[in-house]
Amino acid sequence: MGLDLSPKLAKKVYGDDGGSYYAWCPNELPMLREGNIGAAKLALEKNGFALPRYSDSSMVAYVLQGGGVAGIILPESEEKVIAIKKGDAIALPFGVITWWYNKEDTELVVLYMGDTSKGHKPGQFTDFFLTGFNGIFTGFTTDFVKRAWDVDDDIVKALIGNQKGKGIVKLDANVKMPEPKPDHRKGMALNCEEAPLDTDIKNAGNVVLLNTQNLPLVGQVGLGADLVRLEGNAMCSPGFSCDSALQVTYIVKGSGRLQVVGVDGKRVLETIVKAGNLLIVPRFFVVSKIADPGGLSWFSIITTPNPMFTHLAGSIGAWKAISPEVLQAAFKVTAETEKLFRSKRTNDAIFFPPPKAKLKHPFSYLLVSLNTLELLLVIISLNYSILLLFLY
Length: 392
Known about the structure:
By secondary structure, the protein is α+β, with helices and mostly antiparallel strands. The chain has three domains: 145 residues, Jelly Rolls (Sandwich); 161 residues, Jelly Rolls (Sandwich), CATH 2.60.120; 31 residues. The chain contains eight helices and 23 strands. The chain is elongated, with a radius of gyration of 29 Å.
C-alpha cells in the first residue's frame, strides 16, 4: 500500500466572528477517500451560532472543548435541545438536522467523524444549510417559497434576504435561544469522560467504548467509537481491528510515538503524534502507541457499531492462546525461549505501565562511601584492641 498514512491537521474552510469550520482534505490524507471517511471540526466563539443544517453522511460528534447547546431534529421527530460539554459523544444518523450555539466565554470545539460512502464526495462531508447566504431558501424562486410556506411577498423577501451569514454567525448578546431540557439528553449523548470505564489498568491507561449498548443511536450511524487515555510513558498493546473495520483516530491531548505495521511485516508508519492530528489505520494493519511523559489521549471511530479488536501482547494477547509447540516452531526458538516469552505480560491487558527504572541510584556513591567508612572504622577498632592487649 503506497498511500500516505502520516497524521494531518485540519484546515479552515470558512468562518467569521462567530467561529470557524475546519476539515481534513482527502488530497492531503488519501485514506479519507480510500476508506470513505470524513472528518471536520466546528469552533464557535462566544455567542457563535452554527446555522441549522443536515449532512449527506452519518457521523459521530465529539465535544473536544467548552460547552454549549445543540439542537437535534431526527426525521419526523420533535427538536431535542441538549446541553453539551467536553467529553460528550453524539450519534448523528442520516437526515438529522442540527444547530449549535455557544453562550460561554470558552471556545466550543466539536469534532465530526463519519461515513461518506453514500455522500456526494468520498472523504468529505457536504452540508446543506436551511438558512443563510447559501441556504436552500436562496435557491428557490419566490413563487415556490410563497406557495410551499403559504406566505406573502414581504415574508418571502425576509426569509431569503435577511440572513447574510454563511454557515456560522455571531448573535447579539440579547438574542434568546432555547434552553436545554435534561430529559432530551437521554439516548442522545454519552459523556465519555464520565462513563464507566470498560478497561482500566493502574498506572497505564483506560478506555471507554461507545457502542449500541450505551448509545443505541450509533447502530443507525453504523459506527462505533472509543476514548483512550494513556498515562505518561505507558504503552498501548499492538493490535488490530479483527472485523474488517477502519480506525480513524484524532489525538485529543498530549503526544507520543506511533508505529503501524502492514502487509509483509512492513512498518508503514513511524511518527510522533500530537493534539490535533488525525490519522487512519487501514483494515487489519497493526498499530501501537507509546505516550510521552505528559500522557496521550485519543478519540477514534471504527467503521462498525460494535467493534472487535485482537491484541497481540498482554494477558489477553493472541499469543497466549496459541499452543507452546506452535509458537516454538513458528518463531524457531527453543522451548526455554518460548516459555520465557509466554511468561511475560501475564497481568497487564491492553495497556502496559512504564518499565521500571534500571538507572543507577543517584545516591549510590554515598552508599559506597559509607561502606568504605564502615570498613575503616572496623580496621581502626581492631588495631585499637590489639594495642590495648600489648599495653596490658
